[in-house]
Every structure is written in C-alpha cells, then in structure tokens.
Amino acid sequence: MRGAICRSNYPNLFLGLTGFLFLLFFGAHPGLLTAAETIRIGEVDPLSGHLAQHGTEIHQGILLAVEQANAKGGVAGRRLELISRDDQSKPVVALNQAQDLIIREKVVGLVGGYVDSLVGPVSELAARYQVPYVASASLQRGLTAKKNPYFFRISRLDGIVQPVCRFLVETFRARRAGILYLSTPGATEFADSLKSSLEQKGVSVPIQEKFRPGWPDFSMLLLKVNQAGVDILVSGGFFADNLIMVRQLQERPLGLKGFLAPWGVAYESFLRELGGAANGLFGTCAWNPGITWPGTEKMSKDFTDEFRKRFGEEPNSTSMHGYTSARAMLAAMASVLQGNGTLTGEAVSKALAGLDITLPMGRLAFDDHGDPRYYQNVVVQIQNQKMVVVYPAERATGKVDFSLAVH
C-alpha cells in the first residue's frame, strides 16, 4: 500500500517466529527498535461475504485517511500502521478478529464496521479492554443506549429516518406508504421508526414486511405491496436487494407513485447497473461527489480527486463514512499527543468525546452516548442518471420530478 503501512489477515508462521525472535533480541535494546514509535490502528470490516462491497468501500476510505496522514508526517510526527482484518460478514469472526487486534497486535484504537450485527460485538469488546472504537456504519439505538465511553460512531438512525419522514410528508405528500426491510438490527429499527414517525404525521402504513439477507425474489412481497394499495414503497434493503426489487417492479408495475431506498440507490454503481431505468428513484446520502456539507466544497473535491487517483474509481457515501471514522480517530490521537499525553485508551476516548471538527460529511461532534450530534442525510432523486438533491430545501439542487417518480 502506498503511504501507509497496512498488514493483511494471515501472517505466516515463518514471519511470526521471525518477528518473535526479533522482538526477543531487540526488546532489550529499545533504542534500536524504531518501530516502537509507530501507532497501530486496527480495522475490522466485511471484505468478503455478502457485505463485501460496502466493507471494501469503508476500507478504502479508512486507508486513504491513514495514507494522507502519513504523507504529512503521521500524527504528531509518529507514523501510522493500519492493520486491516476481514470479518467475512460474520459476527463471530468480527469478534475474533477484533480480539486478536487488541490482544496480540496491541492496537491503540479500532475503526470500521458495517451493520450492527458486526459492530455490536466489537463495541462490547472495546469496552472490556478499554480500547476506543469509532464505527463507520452503525445505526442500532441499543448499542449506545447504555453509555460505553469507548464506543463512538459517525452515523445515527435519526439522521436518516427524520429526513425521509419529512420528505414523504412535506414534499411527496404521501397518504399510504409500504415498507419492506432487511432483517438486520439497524434496518429493522429503521422500518419501525419510520412507520411510527409517518403514522404520527397522519400517513398510513398498511404493510411492513421483512426479508432475509440474500433474498433472491421479491415477487410475493411485491404482490402484498400491490394489494395494500400504497402510494410509495420504501425499501430498507441494501444495494443488491434494491437492484432485484427495482428490476422486478419494472417487470410488473404496481402503479406506485414512487420508490425510495435510503441505502443502495444513491451510488454511481447502482446507476450504472440500471442505466435509464434508475431515473425517478429516490435515495438518501450523507455525502457524494458534488453533494457536500456547505463550506466544505474544496475539502470534498480534494478528497474526491485523491480517491479517484488512488483507487481508480468514484468514492461514495460509504467510503466517506470510512474516511470520516478514521479522521475522527486520528484527530483524537493528535489531540492527546499535542497535549503531551500518552496514547492510552482512556486518553483517546476522552479526546473523542470532546472532538468537534468539520469534514465533507458535515460537522462531527459526539453526544454523551457516542452518537454524532449533527449527522443528517439528504434525499436525492435520480434525474438523467444523476443524483439531484430534492430535500431539504436549503440544500436542494433541483425539484422533484413527479412524472419520473411514477415511471
């Protein structure tokens, strides 16, 4: 990897024994062991399995943040080493990998994570060993309901539910909405929260049905949606789920006035897959190239340009979530070292708790539970195969095309 020391999952036995002997000899001669100045950061992400696409996107954002820091001399003059681990989209593997990073690799902090079933076990481990963990993508309210001083995350459920609810009520003027959602903790809470919020605003939700990860055929669920007679269908599924769902809706139109999916639609790769058939769909995002927090346009462009150069592809909201989590961890470490402190778990966690920085995704500061105070998504509609911000009004770059939405 360029600009960052980055190690993979499975060091072989020879290297392990060599490293042991090296440490045995040089441990008595700390002046010779210059690598002791290196700051180790652990990352656990789904780099294989059914969540590999989004896990890889998060990893790319984290890696770029570490490489950028090393290119500028590291953190307070100390070089960074990113140790990345694959949780294979499995909670037990995530737990084992995080434990190995903490106990054997002795990382100073943890970043990464996609979906709460993978993030949750790692957050508990972080508390047990007093190692700060900044999760890149986590929503389940229960993870921060009890104060865990070592767990922070850069996304929160209300930052998605409330914009979607207000858009459906104020702009779309929905009367009846249907919700299909993935049976993960975060997506389930999203569906329950959205239903409750919509009903409080007078919008009927006659159908709310869940499906399992990797669901191959939505025809029976879509039949139920048709029978419910809704104006708009909201999907709490991910990228692959929404591709299948939209294609099946095109094969058998239900007379919907709109389709909205917080996750999966607002991606360049999704637009490439569907082509013109994506036009009219609604999605949400916290960031995308050209969709950035007011005042961060140059910062956002610089990130986009560097990402394209480094990885040869477009960044997206998920890669920005990874980047933001790493930037938060690095900023906290810098704060500790610049104050002549020692990088203990307690010191870094306290620095994270007092953090207040502005990045392309917005202002980042954590509340007493480790949730981001200012996290907020915008609603976009695909028009001419481009993402157009249609809500909220103060950030809108265009207006809703209702004729496209029906299409």
What oligomeric assembly is this protein in? single chain
Counting H and I runs of at least 4 residues, what is the number of helices? 14
How does the overall form come out from the CA principal axes? Answer: globular
The overall pLDDT average reads 91
Give a concise summary:
By secondary structure, the chain is α/β, with parallel strands linked by helices.
Write the SSE topology.
Blueprint: E1 5-7, H1 13-26, E2 39-45, H2 52-71, E3 80-86, H3 91-103, E4 109-114, H4 116-129, E5 133-137, H5 142-145, E6 151-153, H6 158-171, E7 176-182, H7 185-200, E8 204-211, H8 219-228, E9 232-236, H9 239-251, E10 258-261, H10 268-274, E11 282-285, H11 297-311, H12 317-338, H13 345-353, E12 356-359, E13 362-365, E14 378-383, E15 386-391, H14 402-406
Parallel strand pairs: 1-3, 2-3, 2-4, 4-5, 5-6, 7-8, 7-9, 9-10, 10-11
Antiparallel strand pairs: 11-14, 12-13, 14-15
Helix pairs in contact: 2-12, 3-4, 6-7, 12-13
